[in-house]
Write the structure tokens for this entry.
Amino acid sequence: MIISSIYKTVDNDGLIAHIYEHLLAQYVLKCLQDNEFFVLSDIILSAKTYGDTCFMDAELYSSEVKKTYDEALREFDKLVIPEDDILRAAGECGIEMNRNIAEVDRSELSKKLHEVQISPWRKQIDMVYRKAHDESSVNTLFRASYIKYSKESDDLFRECVLEYSIDESHIQTPIDQALAAIVMQIVALNFLTVVREKYTVYDRGDQWSEASISVGYRMFLGSLKKDDKIINQLSYDFLEYIKILSSSVFL
């Protein structure tokens, strides 16, 4: 196992660091999937923003996935980020914070993100403690010249529940049940990367369903209320994703 723990600090602007974090994590995970590497089986990735600093922590289970991961980090910071991707990431941050986007200056937002891109990555082991100003922390900064979010409300977004299960007929022993649970979680988490390419959603957590033999798993997604048909569409997309996995190295 190879450990990678790095960070970027955006002085006194936790909001732009947060949007950058969402963009970066999705780009890296998509690059890994395109090279047939999978979350949980090949990598565990954690991207978080604290104060005005974006942290990336990864556990990588082969030198090949480490090479692809490092290349994805380098390529992302050279990328001219598509405007649609920027707005999707900003929308995800809004769902996470329970705030709508009220105003956005697309040109300035792109420029701010480019400034983060060209700043260097640093190793967390060498990090010197510093406290971000309270007013510029990701937890308190919701309005800036390049984007403004609305007041917080629990009524702005809907919660979608994606449910996955493996029938009892496929499970004969406790070992079968354990393996089925592992495979189901891997498939569900990797499907989330596919979902975020098409929809503006935020992962609000997951849980196992209680069953003596069968295996059930649920994921909770915050989504825009206007996506009334998203559950049916996601169910269809999931079946299509299973077909893709069936012809990949995953199986």
Notes: Strands lie at 2-9, 43-50, 53-60, 101-104, 122-123, 147-149, 157-166, 201-209, 215-224. The CA atoms of residues 8 and 54 lie 5 Å apart. The first strand starts at residue 2 and ends at 9.
